[in-house]
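seq:
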Amino acid sequence: MEIHVYPFGPLQANLYVILFGTEALIIDPCVPYDALNLEGIKVRRIICTHAHYDHIVEADNIRNRTGGVILAYEDECEAIMDASKNGSSAFFSALSVAPPICALRDGDTLTGGDLELETKEDFSIRVIHTPGHTKGSMCLLLTAPDIPGEIGYLFSGDTIFKGTVGRTDLGGSMPDMMRSVKMLSALPDDVIVLPGHGERTTIGHEKRNNPYFTDLGCDDTI
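struct:
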């Protein structure tokens, strides 16, 4: 298993590719397919952490090129398909992703078989509903026994970044965000956070340094 990140666009949104040999999952489809160097790779799933335009702009194009199935949290599917709700009509060119979009729910655990991957690698991806940036924002916790010395990877979308959290003034809620931060603070410190913008961090680093975590007393070493 390999994880590759592709920052793209004026807002430098991060697209992640999780490679399993000749198969792949894409998280936050915001980069043109031809820039991903996935020739000969079968893209099985295209997962959107939330509906905002800068994270979904290439969803239809990548699906059309690869046949991959688009997934999103159940509360976010409507916004992905509606330009008036995903921010595109207000800030960019109107974009509505065509159906179908398969709905995920809080606590869903996805394995290779669920994602139609042929890989024999043992891994799981747990869906964590983290409202705040948007109503249906979610994080994805990837764990695998073969990840050496690491407990897992959290694809955090625009919920948490290194040193801060996502904005809540575009259909979100700060009280919801703080509840989501508190919930994520319960993850092991060694979990690597792969955010929707910017560089990677860890849950432990955020508990010690991110004011949105420290204000809640999330760092139990203090």
